[in-house]
């Protein structure tokens, strides 16, 4: 009798365990894995890019405000209003124009900007900071890595998907023959920032800024070495130091995570960018992100961003419509 009771208990335990196992399998079967996955095979090839505005276009007025100067000034909130009034869907809020930069602003200030942009109907397409990863001084590089980590946190709180970083100017004594050493520093710093950004949902984009990164090949070298889906290129259409910038733009497009579309492919030159050609390159690449525009003072031209920005935005929008329709 005692033996039968023991057997009954064992059998009951086995049945219970089997039921739990089956139930767990059913639960696992109905729970989709937390991973990137597409089921519908939608054709998104005809979706359009969206225009954005880089805050640097209003550099003087925004700087006057954060520096407490009495001259004409503009706040980030004014800039958001400008975008709303001129039907610019998004804005790149460069860190320089947050009160207290480079110090991280208080959460209340960050969230008020985020709230105001939302209720005004303007998306935040990115942000950016000043840094120099080519600095021979390791302590200074470490400070800049921490600066970017701090502003990755700001970007995350803002809901900005991308933060722009620089490679840095070519340091004296490290020209062509010794270029590999600062390239190594840049890669090392970027890897640390990108790992941090990935944990906070912020993509790190490095800009070809005519510094250590003068062309597509030099920029792609960094991106391939870092080797992360959370790292790419801020394509600066006006800062490829080459004879034909469009060739380098096309070459770098597979790595694009954001843009700075300039009026000229040659910096502050009066030579105008071929927007039809640019949009064709972008469309053929499959890039579907933001296209922040950035206007700059040009030789022999009165610079009034209030007029020039809206005019250039219209040109870019018209070029998008012509290419994508």
From TrEMBL:
Keywords: Isomerase. InterPro entries: IolE/XylAMocC-like (IPR050312), Xyl_isomerase-like_sf (IPR036237), Xyl_isomerase-like_TIM-brl (IPR013022). The keyword Membrane does not apply. Pfam families: AP_endonuc_2. SUPFAM superfamilies: Xylose isomerase-like. It is an enzyme of class 5 (isomerase). Residues 95-295 form the Xylose isomerase-like TIM barrel domain. Its EC number is 5.1.3.31. One of its GO terms (molecular function) is isomerase activity. This is D-tagatose 3-epimerase. The lineage of its organism: unclassified sequences, metagenomes, organismal metagenomes.
């Amino acid at each position: 009798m005692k033996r039968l009771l023991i057997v009954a208990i064992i059998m009951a335990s086995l049945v219970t365990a089997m039921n739990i196992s089956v139930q767990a399998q059913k639960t696992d079967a109905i729970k989709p894995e937390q991973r990137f996955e597409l089921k519908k095979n939608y054709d998104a090839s005809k979706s359009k890019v969206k225009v954005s505005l880089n805050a640097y276009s209003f550099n003087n007025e925004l700087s006057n405000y954060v520096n407490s100067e009495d001259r004409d000034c503009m706040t980030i909130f004014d800039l958001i209003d400008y975008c709303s009034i001129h039907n610019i869907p998004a804005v790149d809020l460069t860190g320089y124009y947050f009160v207290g930069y480079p110090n991280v602003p208080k959460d209340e200030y960050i969230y008020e900007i985020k709230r105001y942009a939302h209720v005004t109907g303007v998306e935040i397409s990115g942000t950016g900071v000043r840094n120099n990863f080519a600095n021979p001084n390791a302590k200074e590089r470490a400070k800049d890595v921490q600066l970017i980590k701090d502003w990755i946190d700001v970007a995350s709180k803002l809901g900005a998907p991308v933060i722009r970083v620089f490679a840095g100017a070519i340091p004296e004594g490290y020209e062509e023959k010794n270029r590999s050493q600062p390239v190594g520093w840049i890669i090392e710093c970027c890897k640390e920032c990108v790992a941090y950004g990935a944990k906070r949902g912020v993509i790190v984009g490095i800009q070809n800024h005519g510094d250590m990164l003068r062309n597509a090949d030099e920029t792609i070298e960094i991106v391939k070495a870092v080797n992360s889906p959370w790292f790419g290129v801020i394509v600066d259409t006006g800062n490829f130091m080459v004879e034909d910038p469009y060739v380098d733009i096309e070459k770098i497009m597979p790595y694009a995570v954001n843009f700075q579309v300039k009026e000229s492919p040659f910096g502050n030159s009066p030579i105008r960018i071929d927007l039809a050609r640019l949009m064709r390159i972008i469309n053929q690449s499959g890039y579907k992100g933001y296209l922040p525009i950035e206007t700059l003072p040009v030789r022999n031209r009165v610079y009034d961003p209030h007029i020039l920005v809206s005019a250039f935005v219209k040109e870019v929008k018209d070029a998008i419509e012509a290419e994508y329709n």
